[in-house]
Structures are given as structure tokens and as C-alpha cells.
Design goal:
372 residues; alpha+beta; two-stranded antiparallel ribbon; 12 helices; 45% helix
Length: 372
């Protein structure tokens, strides 16, 4: 009798889970159809399949962390499902093309909440290049060149290119280089290469992004509107406190910049608290993932407006830029004297070229050498 009761409870719980999953899947696929239509795009069957697969993966992630879907930020979830749908990355593909993780964030009132974050797996990069790469006919399996292998770089002689050579030795599992052989529509083969050291830029951007809301315990507490004692956030900081926080952040970032290798960066004690579990627990997999991404990201892609925005949203440097813009917007009043305003209106002033948000400035002194 007791065993029958347990089975009934388990069956009921499974039915409730499937009902909730179906509800969220239908809600967000409907939103995606509307978003695509507003941009004049077709939400095709495969995009819908990717959206459904991602919702299932996110639901399992949230419930396994004993969190509730209803407590997630709706706009964040909509953005993530939009990224998966527009880029056509399938969470159910084998090997995986994308993954999801929960990240804790803090709002202006000091309250912590969870956001879903999507990342591209190694085979997701292949899919992006295959589906959206300009003039790409075929993407061959990636070469994972390991320490101790013999590798010869491509040689250029005029317009002719001698292919690279790779001989596996099996001496190590440490991947030091990835190579994508890609056949173009004109029959030529291009070799897209990324080195292990290029990942230093990815890790630096990751830590700098995670430091954005860090106050290092310098701000103490305050009472919110309800009288509850909560930590003060960076939005509450005085100018002196902001300066002290900036100095602490610079100490962490300088320690990273002083590291010679990616292994040194991962072992950097002052920076490790600001690295995610993916970097710390599965560092080798993360390094290979980022190398594969770095190898293909410079190749031009035919992306629709939603897919283009999705790729930008996933870039950590872009995310930090947007946060800094939001933080500093209208932070200082700009007062123009009436006489100056009249004089300005009477003159023709040549404007500076518009700067695109997220654009990399080659001579920016704040950008480390390996990120230029």
C-alpha cells in the first residue's frame, strides 16, 4: 500500500513538472515568434526546436538548483531563448552546441537574484560557421593540436598557400592550438587558427566583468524601504568609496596582467574568487572552448539582426561596456550657459565620427597588449 502511494506521488510530481515545462516552453516560443515577426523574420521549425530544447535544459538546471522558474527575470529568459533561436544552437545535439548556467547578481537595492546565462560549446562554433559563415561550403573537423605534437604553420607564397601539417604524438592532453580547415564556395581551403595564449584575453574580460558589482566589503550596510538591513551596493558609494573600490579592482586586474600564462592566471589567488566554476572546475575544457570560439569569430557571418545582437550580448567585454554606460549615464550634470548655447546654435560645428558601442579602440591604453 505504501509503495503504491509513493508511485502515485512520483507520477503526480512528474506530471506537474511536464505541465510547468510545457507552459513555459509554449509561452516563450510564442514570444519568439512575435519577436521574429516584428523584425520581418521567419521563426522556422528548427529555430523552434532549438527554443524548446533550451527551455527544457534551463528548466532542468533551475529545478536541480532548487530554484523556481517563476523567480527568474522574464526579460533575461526571453533574451537567452532569443539567442538560442536566432543562432540555431541545439541544446539536445550530441556533442552539445550550447550550455546554460545560473549566475547570481545583485540589484541596486542589494538584493541577490539569479539569471540564466548561455554559452557556446565547441561544436556550437562549428554550427555557427557552417550555418552563417560568409562563402563557407564545408567545415571540416577541428584539429586539436596538443603539446608535443609536430605542427607546421601554413606558408604564403604570393596568393598561394601551403597547407599546415600536423602529426599527433600522443605525449600530452594539453591542447595548445586549434585549427579549423574550412572549404569555401570557390573550392579554396582556409585554415582558421587560435593559440592557447589567446584565451588570456577571454579570462581577463571574464574577471573584469565579474568585478563590476564588487565592493570588497568596504561599504557596510543600510536599511531598505521596509527597514530591513541590507548591504550597500556600488550605487550607494560616495566618491571616496568609489575610488577605494577602483583601487582594489585595479590590484586584482594588475595581478592578472602580471601573469605570463593562462595557467598562471587561473592560479592567481586574488583573482580566483571572481572566476566562475566553469573556469575553475573544468578549466581545460573551458580553454579549448574559448580557443575554438577565438578561431572562428573573426570570419564574417551573414547574421540577421536578432542573431547579430545575440552574439554581442554574449560577449563579456560588450556586457561590461553596457553596464559601465548605464552606470555613468548622466552621472554629472552638464550645464551650458545661455550665451554659449546661442553662440553654438549660430555656428556650424563639424561632428566627430560616431563610435559604435562595444567597438575596440586599437590604442586604448586600458586594454592589455594581448587583447589588442
Amino acid at each position: 500500500m505504501a509503495e503504491t502511494k509513493k508511485q502515485e506521488v512520483a507520477t503526480q510530481g512528474k506530471q506537474e513538472m511536464n505541465t510547468q515545462l510545457s507552459y513555459y516552453a509554449n509561452q516563450y516560443t510564442g514570444l519568439m515568434e512575435r519577436d521574429f515577426a516584428e523584425h520581418g523574420l521567419v521563426f522556422d521549425d528548427y529555430s523552434k526546436q532549438c527554443a524548446m530544447a533550451s527551455m527544457s535544459a534551463i528548466y532542468n538546471l533551475v529545478t536541480s538548483n532548487k530554484a523556481a522558474m517563476s523567480n527568474l527575470n522574464g526579460s533575461n529568459l526571453r533574451q537567452v531563448i532569443g539567442q538560442v533561436s536566432s543562432l540555431q544552437l541545439n541544446a539536445n545535439a550530441v556533442p552539445r552546441e550550447c550550455y546554460f548556467q545560473l549566475r547570481s547578481k545583485q540589484d541596486a537595492n542589494g538584493n541577490w537574484y539569479k539569471e540564466v546565462e548561455m554559452g557556446i560549446e565547441g561544436d556550437g562554433n562549428d554550427a555557427l560557421l557552417r550555418n552563417f559563415g560568409v562563402d563557407v561550403k564545408k567545415v571540416y573537423p577541428v584539429w586539436l593540436v596538443k603539446e608535443g605534437d609536430e605542427f607546421t604553420y601554413p606558408k604564403h607564397r604570393g596568393v598561394e598557400v601551403t597547407p599546415p601539417e600536423w602529426e599527433e604524438k600522443g605525449l600530452s592532453q594539453k591542447v595548445i592550438r586549434v585549427v579549423y580547415p574550412v572549404e569555401m564556395n570557390d573550392g579554396k581551403i582556409e585554415y582558421m587558427i587560435a593559440e592557447r595564449e589567446s584565451v588570456k584575453g577571454n579570462l581577463f574580460a571574464h574577471v573584469r566583468n565579474n568585478l563590476l558589482n564588487e565592493t570588497f566589503g568596504l561599504l557596510g550596510t543600510k536599511k531598505d524601504k521596509s527597514g530591513k538591513v541590507v548591504p550597500r551596493t556600488r550605487y550607494d558609494a560616495t566618491d571616496e568609496e568609489k575610488k577605494a573600490i577602483a583601487e582594489k579592482k585595479n590590484e586584482v586586474l594588475k595581478a592578472l596582467l602580471d601573469c605570463e600564462t593562462i595557467e598562471d592566471m587561473l592560479a592567481c589567488e586574488v583573482a580566483r574568487p571572481y572566476m566562475s566554476a566553469a573556469w575553475l572546475d573544468t578549466s581545460e575544457s573551458m580553454i579549448v572552448r574559448k580557443m575554438r570560439n577565438n578561431a572562428i569569430k573573426k570570419h564574417p557571418k551573414n547574421l540577421n539582426v536578432i542573431a547579430k545582437q545575440s552574439l554581442m550580448q554574449m560577449d563579456e567585454t560588450y556586457q561590461q561596456t553596457q553596464e559601465e554606460i548605464a552606470e555613468n549615464a548622466n552621472s554629472e550634470p552638464f550645464v551650458v550657459a545661455e550665451s554659449e548655447a546661442i553662440e553654438t546654435r549660430s555656428e556650424v560645428v563639424e561632428s566627430e565620427p560616431e563610435k559604435v558601442v562595444g567597438e575596440v579602440v586599437e590604442n586604448d591604453e586600458n586594454v592589455p597588449d594581448f587583447m589588442k
